[in-house]
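Renewal narrative, Specific Aim 1. Our central claim is that a sequence can be written position by position from structural information alone. The example that follows is taken directly from our test logs and has not been curated for this report. It begins with the C-alpha cells describing the chain, in the order in which they were read.
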C-alpha cells in the first residue's frame, strides 16, 4: 500500500500493519519518535489529509479534542491505510541549525589525504610492451605502485578511451582510474551520528572546501529516544541490530544521493569517510552489538579507531573508499567527544579547561595540572524536551528564550509564530529566570501566589501562576482560547533539577580529582547546537555551568562535525584523535563513593 508524505511529496510503499512512523523511517522522512512507539511523548503528531481516521489511538491523551477532530494522529500509533496522505508539521529543526555550525578552526591546515593525478600514458607498442600498470607507474614517476582490484578492472577501459587518464592514489595505492582529467572530482564525507541528528558533510578533498551539508533527524529515533532504549531494541530479538544499523546507513546514503543530484557529482568519486558518534552510535554504525554498554561495567567492544571499506557497509561511494570510524574514549564517552576535543586547545592540559557536551548524556572533559579526565552523566532527556510536559526539539513554534520582567513575561519563538511548546534552550532560560526572580526557591519549589505576594512580586507576573491545590504551574504563553497555553510545571522544574544535578556533580568530582578550582578554571567550552543557543547566565543560574565569568564561556558550534571534518581532511588530525582518546582518563561516576553526596548537594538551585 502507498503512503505520501507532505510537504516533501515523498510516496513510498508500506506494509499492512505498519504505523505511519515505521513507514516514514522506510521512506527517509523524519518524524520525532522519542518514545519508540509507545505513544507517551506525543512528539510525532501528524495531520492525516487523506486516509482512514475512524480510529484514534491516544492512550496517554497527547492530542487535544480540536487536534483529533482536525485529523491529527500520533504517527507512532496510527496504522497506514492505502493511499494515505500525511502532512508533516513545518519545522526549522535542530538539524537545520546544525548546518550553520561547522566552521573549521582558523589555524587548521588540510592535507591532501587522497590524491588525483591527470597523466598521459604512452600506448603499448612493439617497442614498449610494458603492462598497463607499469606504463602508469612510468607516467607518474613512481615505482612498485599497488593497484586495488577495482582500479585494475577499470584500467584497460580507461586507457582505451585515450592517453590522458586520472589516477586516484591513497597511501601509495591506486584506488581508481578514470579517462580524461577528473582531478577536481575528489570527494570525502564527514559524518556526525548524533543520537538526535545525523549531519553529513561533503568535502572536496583537493580544495579542502565544504561543498554541501545535510542534517536530518536520526531515523533510529523510531526505535528509542536515547542510547539505552536503542540498545534495548537491539537486544529484543535477532535481526534488530541489522534493522537499526540499516536505518543510519540508509540515512547517509540518502544524503549522498541528494548531493549527487543537486551538485551533479558521482558517488564513484567519493573516496574517504570519517565518522564520529557516541560509543553506541559507533557500534551500531559498524553493526557491532552494543549490548554490553547497557549494563555495568559498560565495557565497549572497541574504542580504537576502525577502518573498513565503504562497500562492506553498503555506503554509496567508490568500491575502494575507506571508512574511518574515530576512536571512542569509553563506553559512554564516544568519538564525537574525541572529535570535539581536537577542535580546541584542551589537551594543552596546563590550565583549567572544561569541555561539556549537553544532551541526554552529559559528556564532560576536564584538563588541568597536566591531566585530562572525562566522565559521562545520565542527564536524562529534559534538556532535549522529551521529559518536559510541553517540551519539543528546536523546531518552529518552540519557545527558545524567556525573560521575566517586572510586570511581564517576554518570549522568543522559533519561526516568529504562535508557540506550541518549549525547547532545551527555552527550558534552561525559563527555569533560570524563575530562580533569578525568586518564583522558584532554592529547593526547586515553584511558589504559590500567596508566598509570591509577600515577596513583592507584581500582579503582572502573579497572573502567570496557575494553582491546582497541590502544586503550581507557570504560564509562559496565554493562547487566545485558553486551550493551547504553554506552561512550565512543577514536574518540569524537577526534571531540570535532576538533569543539572547530574552534570554539576560530574563537573565537581572531576575538578576535585585533578585539583582545578573555580579560580583556576580559565575556560569553559560548550559543544553542540544546544551550547550555541543557551543563554550562559541562565545556565549558571540553575547550576548547570560553574559560576565563572561569562567571558570564559565559549560556544564551539557542532564540534563533533568540525572534528570529523578535520579527521577527514588531515592525517595529522586523525593521528591526533587516536592519541587524545588514549590519553584521556575515564572516570566512572557510578563507581565513585562520593558521587551520590555531590549529586544531592547539586540538587539545590
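The sequence written for that structure reads:
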Amino acid at each position: 500500500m502507498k503512503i505520501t508524505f507532505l510537504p516533501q511529496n515523498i510516496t513510498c510503499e508500506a506494509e499492512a500493519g505498519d504505523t505511519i512512523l515505521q513507514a516514514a523511517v522506510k521512506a527517509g522522512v523524519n518524524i520525532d519518535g522519542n518514545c519508540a512507539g509507545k505513544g507517551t511523548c506525543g512528539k510525532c503528531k501528524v495531520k492525516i489529509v487523506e486516509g482512514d481516521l475512524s480510529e484514534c489511538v491516544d492512550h496517554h491523551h497527547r492530542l487535544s479534542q480540536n487536534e483529533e477532530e482536525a485529523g491529527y494522529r500520533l504517527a507512532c500509533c496510527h496504522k497506514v491505510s492505502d493511499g494515505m496522505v500525511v502532512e508533516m508539521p513545518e519545522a526549522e529543526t535542530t538539524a537545520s541549525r546544525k548546518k550553520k555550525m561547522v566552521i573549521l578552526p582558523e589555524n587548521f591546515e588540510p592535507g591532501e589525504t587522497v590524491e588525483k593525478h591527470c597523466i598521459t600514458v604512452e600506448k603499448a607498442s612493439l617497442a614498449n610492451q610494458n603492462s598497463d600498470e607499469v606504463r602508469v607507474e612510468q607516467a607518474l614517476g613512481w615505482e612498485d605502485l599497488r593497484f586495488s582490484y577495482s582500479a585494475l578492472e577499470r584500467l584497460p577501459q580507461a586507457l582505451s578511451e585515450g592517453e590522458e587518464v586520472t589516477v586516484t592514489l591513497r597511501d601509495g595505492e591506486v584506488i581508481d582510474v578514470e579517462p580524461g582529467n577528473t582531478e577536481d572530482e575528489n570527494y570525502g564525507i564527514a559524518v556526525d551520528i548524533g543520537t538526535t541528528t545525523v549531519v553529513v558533510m561533503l568535502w572536496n578533498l583537493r580544495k579542502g572546501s565544504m561543498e554541501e551539508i545535510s542534517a536530518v533527524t536520526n531515523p533510529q529515533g523510531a526505535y528509542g529516544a536515547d542510547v539505552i532504549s536503542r540498545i534495548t531494541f537491539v537486544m529484543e530479538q535477532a535481526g534488530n541490530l541489522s534493522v537499526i544499523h540499516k536505518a543510519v546507513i540508509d540515512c547517509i546514503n540518502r544524503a549522498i544521493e541528494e548531493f549527487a543530484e543537486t551538485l551533479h557529482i558521482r558517488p564513484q568519486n567519493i573516496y574517504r569517510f570519517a565518522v564520529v558518534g557516541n560509543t553506541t552510535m559507533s557500534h551500531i554504525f559498524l553493526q557491532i552489538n552494543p549490548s554490553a554498554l547497557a549494563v555495568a561495567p559498560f565495557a565497549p567492544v572497541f574504542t580504537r579507531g576502525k577502518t573498513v571499506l565503504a562497500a562492506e557497509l553498503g555506503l554509496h561511494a567508490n568500491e575502494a573508499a575507506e571508512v574511518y570510524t574515530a576512536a571512542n574514549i569509553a563506553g559512554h564517552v564516544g568519538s564525537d567527544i574525541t572529535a570535539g576535543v581536537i577542535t580546541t586547545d584542551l589537551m594543552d592540559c596546563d590550565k583549567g579547561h572544561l569541555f561539556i557536551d549537553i544532551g541526554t548524556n552529559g559528556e564532560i572533559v576536564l584538563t588541568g595540572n597536566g591531566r585530562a579526565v572525562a566522565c559521562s552523566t545520565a542527564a536524562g532527556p529534559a534538556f532535549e524536551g522529551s521529559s518536559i510536559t510541553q517540551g519539543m526539539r528546536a523546531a518552529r513554534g518552540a519557545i527558545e528564550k524567556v525573560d521575566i520582567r517586572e510586570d511581564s513575561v517576554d518570549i522568543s519563538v522559533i519561526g516568529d509564530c504562535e508557540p506550541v511548546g518549549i525547547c532545551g534552550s527555552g527550558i534552561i532560560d525559563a527555569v533560570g529566570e524563575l530562580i533569578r526572580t525568586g518564583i522558584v526557591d532554592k529547593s526547586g519549589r515553584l511558589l504559590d501566589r500567596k508566598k509570591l505576594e509577600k515577596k513583592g512580586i507584581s500582579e503582572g507576573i502573579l497572573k502567570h501562576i496557575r494553582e491546582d491545590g497541590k502544586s503550581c504551574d507557570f504560564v509562559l504563553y496565554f493562547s487566545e482560547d485558553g486551550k493551547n497555553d504553554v506552561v512550565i510545571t512543577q514536574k518540569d522544574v524537577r526534571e531540570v533539577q535532576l538533569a543539572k544535578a547530574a552534570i554539576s556533580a560530574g563537573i565537581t568530582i572531576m575538578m576535585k580529582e585533578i585539583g582545578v578550582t573555580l579560580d583556576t578554571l580559565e575556560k569553559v567550552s560548550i559543544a553542540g547546537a544546544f551550547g550555541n543557543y543557551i543563554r550562559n547566565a541562565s545556565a549558571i543560574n540553575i547550576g548547570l555551568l560553574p559560576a565563572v565569568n561569562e567571558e570564559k564561556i565559549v560556544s564551539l558550534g557542532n564540534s563533533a562535525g568540525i572534528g570529523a571534518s578535520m579527521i577527514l581532511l588531515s592525517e595529522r588530525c586523525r593521528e591526533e584523535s587516536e592519541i587524545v582518546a588514549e590519553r584521556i582518563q575515564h572516570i566512572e561516576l557510578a563507581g565513585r563513593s562520593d558521587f551520590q553526596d555531590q549529586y544531592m548537594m547539586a540538587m539545590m538551585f
